[in-house]
Amino acid sequence: MIKLGIIGMGNMGCQYARMILDGGISHVEIAAITRIKPQQLERLPELMDRAVPIYASAHELFEAVRSGLLYLDGVLIVTPQMCHEEQVIEALELGLHVLCDKPSGVFSSQARHMNEVAQESGLVFSMMFHQRMNPIYQKMKEIVESEKYGKIKRVNWVITDWYRPDGYYDSVAWRGTWRMDGGGILLNQCPHNLDLLQWICGMPERVQAFCKEGKYHKIEVEDEVSAYLEFTGGATGTFYATTGEAPGMNRLEISLEDALLVCENGSLRVCELGFQESEYRRTATNYFASLKGTWKEVACPGEDTMHKGVLRDFADSILEKKTPFVEGTEGLKSLLLSNAMYLSSWQKRMVELPVTEAEYLTFEEAFCKEFKAKPMDAKKQGNNCIQAEEGSTK
Question: CA-CA distance, 99 to 114, in Å (whole number)?
Fold first, then answer.
C-alpha cells in the first residue's frame, strides 16, 4: 500500500482525494494532506473518520517527514504552478516519489531543475498529463509514428472548449495573474494540448505566436492565443485556443502524405487516399481532379482512464520499480513550447526551439517591461505558495 500525501487541497486536490477514497486506486492510501477549507473537508468525511493529519503548508508536511513524525511513500502536488519547482525538489530530496499536476512550472528552467534532481534521485517522478491516457490520442500517435500514411504535412488544432466565465477568474485571487498563475490559457488550460501536440507530432522547430491578454476577461494574462508552427521536414501547423469563445469546439487535424486524420467529438476519423499523392501529383494529366479519398472511423480500443489512470500508474511504478507512463521529465517540453510562444508574442518575432537560457532571461525581461511587474522567482515564493495552497482550485 502506497502512503500518499496530497499537497494542495483545492478543487483538483479534493477530486483526486475522492478518487482514492472511492477505491478507484485501491493500492493507495491518503496519509496526509495540506490545508483544506472546512466546506471541502465536509465533502470528504472519510478523512476526518480516519484522522488523516492536516498540515498548514507543504513546508510543515515536509518538516514532519524530515523529523520522522510522518511516513510517506510519495506526494501528489496540486498547488499553483509557481510553487511546483520548490515543492517537487524538496520532496525528491526527502526521498519521496512525486506526481505533479501540470504544468511543471512557469519557466522551462524550473522544469530542468526538477528533472535534474529527479534523475539523480532514482525516484519515480510523474506528471499529471492525463490526456495521454485517452486511446484516441494514443492511436493518433501510433499512426503518425508508423508512417503508415507517410509523414506529416500539416497540423491544425482549434481548442475553444476551455470556455471560462468571469467568475472563474474571480473565485481565487491567484487566477489570471502573472505573479502566481504565471500565464493564462497557455499555462493553465493548454499544457495538456501542448503536451499532446509534441507527443504526437514532435517538437516544432520554430513558432510565431500572438497572445491577447485580457481580451475577453478582466485579467492580466492571455485568454486567447494564435500560433504558427514549423516542424522538422517541412510540416507546418497552427494552434488556436481561447477561454472566451462559445460554443466551444476541439478539433485536431493531422494531414499526412496519403491521408487526413481528424479528431473531434470523441472520435477519430481517417480519410485514406488509397494511393501515393506525391506520385499522382507528378504524373496526373487531369489538372482539375478533386481527390476525395475514403472516410472511415478508426477503432481506438481501450478505456480513457484519465486522472485515475495516471494515479494508478504512479502507484504501480513505485511498487514495481518501473518507469511511469507519463514521466516527469516530459513536463519540460510543453513549457518549452509555451515559453517560446510568449517570447514570440511579446517580441513580435519568430522564435526557434529550443530557446537558449539567455533568451529566456530576455523573455523574463520582456514580461517585466510589458506588464510593469517584478521578475518572478519561484525560490522567493514560499509565503505565497503557503497562502495559495488554501485557495488552490487546480
Answer: 12
